[in-house]
Structure formats: structure tokens, C-alpha cells
Amino acid sequence: MARNKIKSLGTPNGAxxxxxxxxxxxxxxxxxxxxxxxxxxxxxxLRRVAAGESGSAASDWIKAERDLMVKQHA
Length: 74
Fold this sequence. Notes:
The protein is built from two helices and three strands, in the order E-E-E-H-H. It is of the alpha+beta class.
């Protein structure tokens, strides 16, 4: 009989949802929650389009993810 620890379901590598929009996968790694990134990426998109700037959904997503990570570390 194997003695494997069961990781929490629904999150990669047994990650736990923590306060607000962050998910901690390890002590040194903090990633914004997908829903928070999605919402901010949409806001980035709206501002970009209103300003007449070119870009893509991927660039909006990356900017949103970075902005959330910077905000967390500030």
C-alpha cells in the first residue's frame, strides 16, 4: 500500500488560494489568480483600444499579470 499524500484538488501542485488575487505554489513563487489577471487584462485592452494603440490579447494578459505581481511586491 503506497503512502502518498493527497494534494488539494483543483489547484496545481497542491497550491492553496490565499487572500485576494494571489495563489502561492511554493514559498518563493507567487502568481496572480487567473480571474484577477483576466479582469485586469480586459481593462488593459479597453485602455489600449481607447488610446488607439496596437497590441494583442497575449500582450494585454502579460501586462496584467506583471502589474498584479508588481502590486503584490510593492
